[in-house]
């Protein structure tokens, strides 16, 4: 390429530089290439030779680093290394960084895993979902719409927080306050005992109330309670009555603790329902004072004391009767007679077979049934007895033929051939009788027959060869023996 | 080389001409771009792009010279063991090579080559004096 300056022996001066295009080391984009010099000539190309062939990293850091090859790394480099989490040991780990492809970064951006469960907490730690906690700047301006849940404003939603409070337990805790009075009954709503009792429940509860009334309350009060109870037949939903009870309890005993337990638990806000208040007012209006005398419903019946209404009197009179009846009925429950259940065992005679499952009643000791066999193989088990033989040696196996094989016991082969031969003249007869169609058939049949015979012969040859091969060793031995003992003309192999 | 001498003459002339025009003041070199690849299609595409780019910049271009393709044959026995009929696989590996000559400054060449490159095409640039 250059001019011929050098002499014949030496090499021509090489005034050229060769560069190759390589992909930049550590670059994400494969199209990011640099020219790298691949020859050792002295020729310098200012345009191309800007890059240091040993370091293709052409950032400003790299340029700085080359100056700091042996000394400590510049501060910004060190800071960056530390930010990445790499150790600060004087080595520039930044040279090993790889650029992320722009497409790859979009694809590999993190997406929250919807199916991930948080790590199971250790046993002594409980987690609460505080995303709903409202953090207001001051308690006054708690605007429902505006103040967002500050706690959860900048957090990622956490799924499946294992609740610290078991919801069932929480529910029970809430419910237990409401239903102290009839809690047992409520729990057994489906219980038939309760349902049965409910039919007569009116009387029973009234009896209860009556008892209470005797001891604690005045007659009038008791009457009032009964009246109220008549209105609401269900013993469970006795709100009005409950309220009255509470009020009375408060009045009579005035224990603040009890009040808190009972009332504060039962209702959120302690206020008597309006009905109760009205009734009480009515009571106050009508009877006013509670006399010291003890009064029973019987007194009302006898008309000693005024009553509010006639109905009440009647009801109250009936109450006693009803109670008495009820008590009678349930006190003297007749004992159930135990029914004797007869279980009859099946007798042998009555047993009847629905189908016969036995083949026969003969026993195998006496009966020797024959075994079903394939035809044709069993007939020649007995050796042939030639007429004229005096000594019928039935237990000797006769060997015939060149190979000295027990002919009688070989698998039969000539059977079918014999059959065919017998059949043939018969078929010929038929063929003569019938004309064309039968003629064709016989031709085909003849062909088939002949083919069958050929096949048989082929099989026979094959079998013979096989057998010969099998018994070759035996024949060799026999030949040896025959060579020694027998006449010289015997040839077994 | 005679061809080189011719080249040199031509180049010098061109250089002078350009100098008179005052268009380019940077030095011109003879630049040989060798493109090689297994894939003919890509190679041809890159060649065409390079030539087109060079012509657009009004450089002297010697069109893509097609060096005869080298075919590397690999003939192996098909069988992993020695048994069986001796059948042979004949694999081949073709390397295509194109050469483009330009006369321009190295910076321009750098520009051109950076733009058009297909994967699988190897580029080698040799720069010599004009």
From TrEMBL, chain A:
<feature type="compositionally biased region" description="Basic and acidic residues">
    <location>
        <begin position="438"/>
        <end position="459"/>
    </location>
</feature>
<feature type="compositionally biased region" description="Acidic residues">
    <location>
        <begin position="219"/>
        <end position="231"/>
    </location>
</feature>
<dbReference type="GO" id="GO:0005634">
    <property type="term" value="C:nucleus"/>
</dbReference>
<feature type="region of interest" description="Disordered">
    <location>
        <begin position="438"/>
        <end position="468"/>
    </location>
</feature>
<dbReference type="GO" id="GO:0005829">
    <property type="term" value="C:cytosol"/>
</dbReference>
<dbReference type="InterPro" id="IPR007307">
    <property type="entry name" value="Ltv1"/>
</dbReference>
<dbReference type="GO" id="GO:0042274">
    <property type="term" value="P:ribosomal small subunit biogenesis"/>
</dbReference>
<dbReference type="GO" id="GO:0000056">
    <property type="term" value="P:ribosomal small subunit export from nucleus"/>
</dbReference>
<dbReference type="GO" id="GO:0030688">
    <property type="term" value="C:preribosome, small subunit precursor"/>
</dbReference>
<protein>
    <recommendedName>
        <fullName>Low temperature viability protein</fullName>
    </recommendedName>
</protein>
<feature type="compositionally biased region" description="Acidic residues">
    <location>
        <begin position="252"/>
        <end position="262"/>
    </location>
</feature>
<comment type="similarity">
    <text>Belongs to the LTV1 family.</text>
</comment>
<feature type="region of interest" description="Disordered">
    <location>
        <begin position="249"/>
        <end position="272"/>
    </location>
</feature>
<feature type="compositionally biased region" description="Acidic residues">
    <location>
        <begin position="201"/>
        <end position="212"/>
    </location>
</feature>
<feature type="region of interest" description="Disordered">
    <location>
        <begin position="201"/>
        <end position="237"/>
    </location>
</feature>
UniProtKB/TrEMBL annotation, chain B:
<dbReference type="GO" id="GO:0003735">
    <property type="term" value="F:structural constituent of ribosome"/>
</dbReference>
<dbReference type="InterPro" id="IPR005729">
    <property type="entry name" value="Ribosomal_uS10_euk/arc"/>
</dbReference>
<feature type="domain" description="Small ribosomal subunit protein uS10">
    <location>
        <begin position="32"/>
        <end position="126"/>
    </location>
</feature>
<dbReference type="InterPro" id="IPR027486">
    <property type="entry name" value="Ribosomal_uS10_dom"/>
</dbReference>
<dbReference type="GO" id="GO:0015935">
    <property type="term" value="C:small ribosomal subunit"/>
</dbReference>
<dbReference type="Pfam" id="PF00338">
    <property type="entry name" value="Ribosomal_S10"/>
</dbReference>
<comment type="similarity">
    <text>Belongs to the universal ribosomal protein uS10 family.</text>
</comment>
<protein>
    <recommendedName>
        <fullName>Small ribosomal subunit protein uS10 domain-containing protein</fullName>
    </recommendedName>
</protein>
<keyword id="KW-0687">Ribonucleoprotein</keyword>
<dbReference type="InterPro" id="IPR001848">
    <property type="entry name" value="Ribosomal_uS10"/>
</dbReference>
<dbReference type="GO" id="GO:0006412">
    <property type="term" value="P:translation"/>
</dbReference>
<dbReference type="InterPro" id="IPR036838">
    <property type="entry name" value="Ribosomal_uS10_dom_sf"/>
</dbReference>
<keyword id="KW-0689">Ribosomal protein</keyword>
């Amino acid at each position: 390429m250059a001019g011929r300056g050098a002499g014949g022996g030496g090499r021509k001066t090489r005034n050229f530089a060769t560069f190759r295009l390589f992909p930049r080391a550590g670059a994400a984009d494969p199209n990011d290439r640099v020219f790298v010099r691949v020859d050792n000539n002295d020729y310098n190309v200012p345009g191309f030779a800007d890059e240091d062939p040993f370091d293709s990293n052409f950032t400003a850091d790299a340029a700085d680093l080359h100056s700091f090859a042996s000394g400590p790394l510049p501060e910004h480099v060190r800071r960056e290394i530390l930010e990445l989490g790499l150790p600060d040991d004087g080595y520039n780990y930044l040279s090993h960084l790889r650029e992320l492809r722009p497409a790859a970064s979009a694809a590999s951006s993190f997406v929250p895993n919807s199916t991930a469960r948080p790590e199971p907490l250790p046993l002594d730690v409980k987690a609460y979902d505080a995303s709903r906690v409202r953090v207001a700047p001051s308690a006054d301006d708690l605007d429902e719409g505006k103040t967002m849940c500050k706690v959860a404003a900048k957090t990622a939603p956490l799924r499946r927080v294992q609740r610290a409070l078991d919801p069932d337990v929480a529910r029970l805790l809430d419910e237990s306050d409401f239903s102290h009075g009839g809690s047992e009954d409520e729990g057994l709503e489906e219980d038939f005992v309760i349902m049965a009792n409910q039919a007569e429940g009116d009387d029973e509860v009234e009896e209860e109330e009556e008892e209470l009334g005797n001891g604690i309350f005045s007659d009038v009060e008791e009457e009032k309670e009964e009246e109220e109870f008549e209105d609401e037949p269900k013993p469970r939903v006795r709100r009005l009555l409950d309220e009255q009870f509470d009020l009375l309890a408060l009045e009579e005993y005035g224990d603040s603790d009890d009040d808190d337990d009972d009332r504060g638990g039962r209702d959120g806000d302690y206020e008597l329902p309006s009905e109760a208040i009205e009734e009480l007012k009515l009571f106050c209006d009508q009877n006013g004072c509670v006399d010291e005398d003890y009064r029973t419903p019987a007194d009302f019946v006898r008309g000693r004391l005024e009553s509010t209404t006639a109905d009440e009197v009647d009801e109250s009179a009936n109450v006693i009767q009803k109670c008495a009846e009820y008590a009678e009925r349930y006190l003297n429950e007749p004992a159930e007679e135990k029914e004797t259940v007869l279980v009859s065992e099946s007798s042998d005679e009555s047993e009847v077979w629905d189908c016969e499952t036995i083949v026969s009643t003969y026993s195998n000791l006496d009966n020797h049934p024959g075994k079903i066999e394939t035809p044709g193989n069993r007939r020649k088990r007995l050796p042939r007895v030639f007429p004229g033989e005096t000594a019928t040696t039935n237990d000797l196996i006769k060997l015939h033929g060149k190979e000295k094989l027990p002919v009688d016991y070989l698998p039969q082969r000539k059977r079918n051939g014999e059959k065919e031969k017998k059949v043939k003249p018969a078929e010929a007869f038929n063929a003569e009788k019938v004309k064309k169609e039968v003629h064709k058939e016989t031709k085909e049949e003849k062909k088939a027959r002949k083919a069958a015979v050929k096949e048989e012969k082929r099989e026979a040859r094959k079998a013979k060869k096989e057998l010969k091969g099998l018994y070759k060793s035996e024949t060799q031995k026999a030949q040896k023996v025959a060579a020694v003992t027998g006449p010289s003309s015997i040839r077994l192999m | 080389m005679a061809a080189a001498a011719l080249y040199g003459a031509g180049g010098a002339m061109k250089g002078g001409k350009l100098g008179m025009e005052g268009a380019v003041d940077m030095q011109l070199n003879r630049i040989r771009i060798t493109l090689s690849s297994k894939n003919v299609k890509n190679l041809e595409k890159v060649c065409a792009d390079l030539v087109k780019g060079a012509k657009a910049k009004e450089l002297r271009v010697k069109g893509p010279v097609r060096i005869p393709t080298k075919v590397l044959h690999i003939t192996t026995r098909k069988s992993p063991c020695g048994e069986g009929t001796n059948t042979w696989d004949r694999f081949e590996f073709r390397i295509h090579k194109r050469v483009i000559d330009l006369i321009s400054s190295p910076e321009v060449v750098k520009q051109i080559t950076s733009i058009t490159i297909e994967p699988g095409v190897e580029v080698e640039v040799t720069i010599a004096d004009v």
